[in-house]
Amino acid sequence: MTTERADAGKKVRQFVDALTNQERMLVVLKRELYEGSWDEMLADLKARMEGRPYIFKLAQRIADDLDRIEHLKSFERENDVDLGDFVQMTP
Length: 91
Hints:
Elements: H1 3-17, H2 21-33, H3 38-49, H4 62-79
Helix pairs in contact: 2-4, 3-4
């Protein structure tokens, strides 16, 4: 493993370790309900906010989840990773 790759892996692990339970849940939901797509999840939440049909009811406030998703999505894009490969919900 190159030093650059090891540094990237360390950065991802640090980021994942610092995720809140709400952020972890969003990553898991993205992977399991939205086939790994933040865009599909965002569309679903925005539809719910607008009173249109939606797929899944999230317990958290939608506006907060939208902010969390943007944060998670940005990290994935900047680091070319899928957090779903790193995050597991603990029972």
